[in-house]
Write a structure and sequence with these properties.
alpha/beta; Quinone Oxidoreductase, Chain A, domain 1; Rossmann fold; 2 domains; 16 strands
Length: about 325
């Protein structure tokens, strides 16, 4: 079968596309014919070696996939051959990745694709959607009527946060870096979008939320705690999901006087039960059109090195070329 893999970590040039042996379906697994995967920042960190996991050799890239079940393990219930499914949380912690024509996945990481949702949409929503759901509801305890502020509402995770918060009945304020991206975030349901290239985030937030925001979602690699604590309401919550090497100044006094909390998390440490709760809610929202894929670029498997370069430039070098998720199509 055709697959995108690496034999050693490094730049996108280490990625190979070629033939590997088809995987064998275990008793608790599904064998899936993949039709779409996606590229996430974590994929570039693993490929480059910036995040050091034990990797199979060769290591197939990718965390997300959407496709059709071709074989069901003897211990698996709830799935049949021919089912359209999506999965995430692959390619991490020593598990093989997803960018291949066929993959095997433990059934407890797999979920049905809504009938009105394409393979590309399901793959694009997978990791970023689970991340957003965990942060908003498990960690952020979001309630209807609260105000959410998310940095980067046109990005992969940010666009999911905007849509899910709106679906949950929250008011959403966000940022974007151009008029076009601001319009895109408004179309996702945000009530107000701050163009951080032209406007002061702090000043606009004081105008839009004079009483403070209940949930501040930071997506940048360098968290701005001074801004967050200033803008948080009493007992406000801050969510952090990036900035592995960041060491920012923290305003301790204002933080504890407001009785705020800050939470960091990574989606790949969630339990199967926690992730299924996210997936079930995501599927409901996808089926009703309340959660839409934010696809910014599409590539074939043969172009995956270019896809990794695009993602890396956006994540590490602040390139404005990408808005949304990268999808890899596998015919």
């Amino acid at each position: 079968m055709k697959a995108a893999f690496i034999q050693q970590t490094g730049t996108p040039s280490v990625i190979q596309v070629g033939q590997l042996s088809e995987p064998t379906c275990g008793p608790a697994e599904l064998l899936i014919r993949v039709h779409a995967t996606s590229v996430n920042p974590i994929d570039t960190y693993v490929r480059s070696g910036a995040v050091a996991f034990e990797l199979p050799a060769p290591y197939v890239l990718g965390c997300d996939a959407a496709g059709v079940v071709e074989q069901v393990g003897s211990e698996v219930t709830g799935f049949e051959i021919g089912d359209r499914v999506w999965c995430t949380n692959q390619g991490l912690l020593g598990v093989q990745g997803t960018t291949a024509e066929k993959i095997t996945v433990d059934a407890h990481w797999c979920y049905p694709i809504p009938s009105n949702c394409s393979f590309e949409e399901a793959a694009a929503n997978a990791l970023v959607g689970v991340t957003a759901h965990l942060g908003l509801f498990r960690e952020g305890r979001l309630q209807a009527g609260e105000t959410v502020f998310v940095i980067g509402g046109s990005g992969g995770v940010g666009s999911m946060v905007v849509q899910m918060a709106v679906a949950a009945g929250a008011r959403v304020i966000s940022t974007a870096g151009s008029p076009e991206k601001c319009d895109q975030v408004l179309a996702l349901g945000a009530e107000a979008v701050i163009n951080y290239q032209r406007e002061s985030i702090a000043e606009r937030l004081r105008e839009e939320a004079p009483g403070g925001v209940n949930l501040f979602w930071e997506t940048r690699r360098e968290p701005d705690f001074d801004l967050a604590v200033e803008c948080l309401a009493q007992r406000g919550r801050m969510i952090i999901m990036a900035g592995r090497d960041a060491r920012p100044v923290f305003p301790v006094g204002p933080f504890y006087v407001k009785e705020c909390t800050v939470t960091g998390f990574v989606m790949f440490k969630a339990t199967p039960a926690e992730m299924r709760e996210c997936a079930d809610q995501m599927n409901q929202w996808m089926e009703t059109g309340r959660l839409k894929a934010n696809i910014g670029a599409s590539f074939t498997m043969d172009q995956i090195a270019a896809a990794h370069e695009l993602q890396e430039n956006a994540t590490l070098h602040h390139s404005a070329e990408l808005a949304g998720k990268i999808v890899i199509q596998i015919p």
